[in-house]
Structure formats: C-alpha cells, structure tokens
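Sequence in, structure out. Go.
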Amino acid sequence: MLEKSVPLLIFAVTGIVFFPVINWLLQQTVVHEQLLHAFLVFLLSGALLIYERRISINFVYRFSDTSQNTLILAYALLVLAIFTKFNLIVLASLCLVAGSFLLFIFGKEQQRLIVSGIGAFALFAAIAVFLPVLDWPLRTLAGKWAAFGLSLVGQNVELGLVKGQSGPMLMLMSNGRPFHVAAECNGFGMLGSSLLMALIIVLYRKIALFDKIGWMLMAVIIGLFFNIVRIILIVLIAPAIEHSSYMLMHEIVGLCTTYGGLAALYFLLMPRASVADSIIGGNSGKAN
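Output:
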C-alpha cells in the first residue's frame, strides 16, 4: 500500500506545482476550436493504435527507476526554466511529468506506447504555443493556393487584404463573389490533427528515422492539401445554394474534407505499420 500511496502523493504535489501551465493549456484548448479538435484526434489516434495493434493495457503502479529519473529530470528542467525564464522549457518539463506518471501507472512494459503518446502530447503543446504566430502565414498560404486551384477550373480569382472593423481581412474574390479567408480557414486545425495522428503512429513503429520524417512530411502535405480542397469546394458550391444554407454547407464540406483527409492518412499509416511491426517484432499483439 505504501509503495502506491507515496508515489501518488508525489505526483499530486507535482500536479499542484505544474497547475498554472496545465490550466493554461486547458484554457487554450477550450478557447480554440482547432486545438480542441486536434486534441480529440490525438486521443482517437491513440485509442485506434491500441486497438489496431492489440496492445494489452495493465495497471502496475510501480515507481520504477525509469519513472523516478524521468520525474527528477522534469524538475531539473523546471528549475532551468525558472532561471532562464524560457517558458517553452516548462512545457517540456510537463511532458516528462506526464511520462513519469504513465510509467508509474502502466509500467516499463508499455514504454514504447508511452513514448509515442508523450511525443505527440509535446507536439500538441507546441501547437498551442505557435497557433497565434502561424495564423496569418498559414492563412495567406491557404488563400494563395486555393486561388490558384480555382483559377485552374476557370474561376476569375482575386486575393487581397481589405480593412475590417476588427483589423485586416483576407478576401478571396471568385467571379465577383467575396469570401472571407478567416482564421478557421488557415488549415492549422487540419495540419495539427494530421501531424498528431502521424507522430503517435510513427513513433510507435519500428522504422528508420528517415521513414519517420517522410511520414511526417506526408502528414503535412495531406493536411494542407485537404484544407485547400475544402476552401475550393466551398467557393464552388456557394453560388448554387441559398444564402440561408451557406453555413450548413460550410460545416458539411469542412467535416467531409477534414475527416476524409484524416482517414486517408490513417489508412496509409496503419496497414503498413501492421506489416512492418509484425515482421520486426514477430508478434503484432505485443507492444515490444
């Protein structure tokens, strides 16, 4: 009993210490729909990975040396962040805390799965930090590529900035019809979801580093491509429907292209993961 209660007390105190950064991450996730969607995709990808690979989950509650050392390193990084005032180090420290806790709960036997999950969680934390910074660059890129795609199908397209009440607006004119390329159109949610799904799978797979990088680049391409397809479809369909149905059409197209892209990425990754891991690991039902 003492072997469980003492580590749990340590992790409870650690949770209090890291509460400000945990609270900030939760607030960012709730406020930004793109982050919330990416987080749900992250959880779904982890669940699908466990199901697809037939990974057996057992609760061991063992405060092993690996778990202890990981927690010590987390606190060392926290001290470093305090002295350097470099906040990104705090997020890295939080990821190590999560890793230490998961090692305590599930044991070193699931270290491979834990590493892939924590790696993806670290990426999610980075996405939360850089979301405001990358909004306009991604929005501009999406607008330019969507304009190019629309011109290929015969649309008369113009793209430019106009002054709005709350700041500059990126407007896409297609055959004289205006479309606002808003923050939700920047593709950050689709791109982040694709990267999270890819990372949690490729980190688990026993493949070469070059292959892992290749799959991550593929996730970037798929994420950007399906977001551009979404914008093009919305622009092409809009003139054919009533104004009252525009938002419904907008949401339907968004859902179809988003989950269509994620499904394509998933089926590209998982069948090959099953074959490669079964050959290397010898047993697709185990996580070693």
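Check: The first strand starts at residue 157 and ends at 164. Residues 133-281 form one domain.
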